[in-house]
Amino acid sequence: MAGPAARRQSVGVNVGGVMVGGGAPVVVQSMTNTDTADIDATVRQVMQLARAGSEIVRITVDRDESAAAVPIIRDRLASMGYDVPLVGDFHYIGHKLLTDHPACAEALAKYRINPGNVGFKAKRDTQFATLIEIANRYDKPVRIGVNWGSLDEELLTRLMDENAASDTPISAAAVQREAIIQSALLSAQRAEELGMGRDKILLSTKVSDVQHLIAVYQDLAARCDYALHLGLTEAGMGSKGIVASSAALGILLQQGIGDTIRISLTPEPGGDRTTEVKVAQELLQTMGFRQFLPVVAACPGCGRTTSTTFQTLAKDIQDHLNTSMPEWRERYPGVETLSVAVMGCIVNGPGESKHANIGISLPGTGETPAAPVFVDGQKVATLRGADVADQFKTMVADYIERKFGS
Ligand code: SF4
């Protein structure tokens, strides 16, 4: 069976106890959208994201009040048993905030630095050096996170001028990609000159266009061995953001590129922030890189389905498995490897059910009103009656207890 390319060799970085790169499984991370100075709201959202499976959570640190809140947030989370590493997202005044708030510098597990906006241009070098010196002092890793929306204009202008004077000019888009990559690599080089180890540096080069993102990361991956954080920036809302992120990140991951991912979705007003974590998990799981949740295989249904029972059952089973996972992870070790099939008729039902740990084939049009159930490839029962769905759910629960219970 064809599989993904070998993982790109990268230098592993320990982010508050979570290994990123160096052969570690691809890490899922996310970011809050609360005002970090609002301690209650931020603690609540970090907990939601961590419970959903975010292994690292980034929070905005944009002013004194948010910097002062960080250690309180970290301590409050720890007191409730949440030790998810917190990453501080700094722009413009990170050097000042980290200097003025040593407790914040100590509480964070990593600093995100945007080389395109480290302070005022004239003082950029010294302010970047301040950030790195503080990271060295507190033994913290950094992510040098370039974003084409806030690219170093000076660097871009210089590369554009050089390209214009070249005998073999490249496209403007290619120059822009080169500026993004150089911004990341030159900053990483400068951090190393300031005494930072390679095992303390992650890079990201985010753009919002799928093809550019793939090209920029392929190039970056070939030119260094720093651990890479993947993300399509400003991916957008709903299915557009999910499809664009999955297409871009899926291709890179298949090529062995990427050590941690964030899916940047714009939530619906009042929407659930944890969707980005679920999408990241599903992307990694569906590609076979990691296993987070049991899989429910269900057919799409067609004119052969006699009712919506199978759709309802498939949804019920998926919802039940998803909501039970936080509790089951401890109670039923390995339960995330479970596969369940819920099929609408005899055409593909028995075959698909046999491939799952436990599967049911509901009766289609013209079929005998009976639903065969397969367990580990063997037919074990034929369910009948109006409560077929409940009978099957009980069988799934019994199977989980038998297979994964201690
Ligand atoms: Fe239609 Fe049956 Fe195929 Fe489901 S398994 S899509 S009901 S033919």
Labels describing this entry:
406 residues; alpha/beta; TIM Barrel; 2 domains; five-stranded mixed beta sheet; 17% strand; binds iron/sulfur cluster
Task: Describe the 3D structure.
By secondary structure, this protein is of the alpha/beta class. The protein has 2 domains: 13-287, Dihydropteroate synthase-like (TIM Barrel), CATH 3.20.20.20; 295-404, 2-Layer Sandwich (Sulfite Reductase Hemoprotein, domain 1). The chain contains 13 helices and 17 strands. The protein has helices spanning 39-52, 64-79, 94-100, 102-107, 124-137, 153-165, 172-193, 210-223, 238-254, 275-286, 309-331, 349-355, 388-404, and strands spanning 13-15, 18-20, 27-31, 56-60, 86-90, 110-113, 142-147, 201-206, 227-230, 236-237, 260-261, 265-266, 295-298, 339-343, 358-361, 371-375, 378-383. The strands form 4 sheets. An 8-stranded parallel beta barrel has the order 3-4-5-6-7-8-9-11, surrounded by 5 helices. The chain has a 5-stranded mixed sheet with strand order 13-14-15-16-17, sandwiched between helices. Helix 2 links the parallel strand 4 and strand 5 (86-90). Helix 3 (94-100) packs across helix 5, helix 6 packs across helix 7 (172-193) and helix 8 (210-223) runs parallel beside helix 9 (238-254). The longest helix is centred in the C-terminal third of the chain and has 23 residues, at 309-331. The radius of gyration is 25 Å and the shape is elongated. The model has no long low-confidence stretch (mean pLDDT 93). The structure holds iron/sulfur cluster. Iron/sulfur cluster binds next to loops. Pfam families: GcpE, GcpE_C.
